[in-house]
Design goal:
The chain is an alpha+beta fold. It has three domains: 150 residues, Roll (Nuclear Transport Factor 2, Chain: A); 31 residues; 28 residues. 54% of the residues lie in helices and 13% in strands. It has eight helices and four strands. Strands 1-2-3-4 form a four-stranded antiparallel beta sheet. A hairpin with a 5-residue loop joins strand 3 and strand 4. Helix 1 packs antiparallel against helix 2.
């Protein structure tokens, strides 16, 4: 809490200084835009002094602060800035602080605009890269937008542009390859989705073919022929044994005897 109060006191002191200088300088220059150059310079110097005088932790405190809470502090301190513009300047410096290096000097100021809006540009020198602080004032003299960007050389700009081009084209190619893979897999995915829930059809079993009919063998006829021959032989034997003709008796049936040997009569 004490640390935040110190920060607030510092802002209040700087705001009083800005307003005091504004009162002195405002009557000396005719106003051609919504703000005069002296007022815009004082606001710019106020920001530069805070940026270069704060530690990384203090700067991060304002960058991450809720915009509504920061706006309350700015309004109470009399600092004519919107919270978004204030954080835009601080965030621009903190994101490239290693590229900027140490602050050296403020080189020049330039104010352009009309009776509705004015843009003030401040050229700064750092040990690493020169920088440009740009502030946009509305008709009430309030800073609505602010940026702090390093001034890059032509080679650095081309290198950065080439890197962005490579990254952009690489991303496009990766996305195209991914889409091509999806298109190639669509037929398989469609077939898989179609077959979900369907039971696999069992193959129809063929009925066994009937075995070809085997022609009946003439066993009965052969047996019948054998019996007739046997009857004739037996009839002839009986007729010879009895001394009679075989015409007088008829053989009805023939049965095998259980005895193995013949008995004499």
């Amino acid at each position: 809490m004490k640390k935040n109060m110190k920060k607030l006191a510092s802002l209040l002191f700087m705001a009083m200084l800005v307003l005091g200088l504004t009162a002195c300088g405002g009557s000396e220059e005719p106003v051609e835009t919504v703000v005069d150059s002296a007022y815009a310079q004082q606001v710019s110097d106020f920001l530069v002094a805070n940026i270069t005088g704060m530690s990384a932790e203090e700067m991060q405190y304002y960058v991450t602060m809720d915009a509504e809470d920061l706006q309350v502090i700015l309004d109470q301190s009399g600092i004519p800035m919107m919270a978004e513009a204030f954080q835009g300047v601080f965030n621009g410096y903190s994101s490239d602080v290693e590229m900027f290096g140490e602050y050296v000097s403020t080189d020049s100021y330039e104010l352009k605009g009309d009776d509705e809006e004015a843009t003030h540009t401040t050229s700064l020198t750092f040990t690493g890269h020169p920088a440009t602080l740009m502030l946009v004032f509305d008709e009430d003299g309030v800073v609505t937008s602010g940026t702090l960007d390093p001034v890059l050389s032509t080679g650095e700009i081309l290198e950065k542009a080439g890197l962005n081009t490579v990254i952009g084209m690489g991303t496009v190619f990766v996305v195209l390859i991914f889409i091509s893979c999806i298109i190639a897999l669509l037929p398989k995915l469609t077939g898989l989705i179609t077959n979900i829930g369907k039971k696999k059809e069992e193959p129809v079993k063929e009925a066994p073919k009937a075995a070809p009919a085997v022609a009946a063998t003439p066993a009965v006829e052969e047996e019948l022929v054998d019996d007739l021959e046997l009857v004739a032989v037996i009839s002839a034997a009986i007729a010879a044994y009895t001394g009679t003709s075989s015409d007088g008796f008829v053989v009805r049936s023939i049965k095998r005897s259980d005895r193995n040997k013949w008995k004499k009569a």
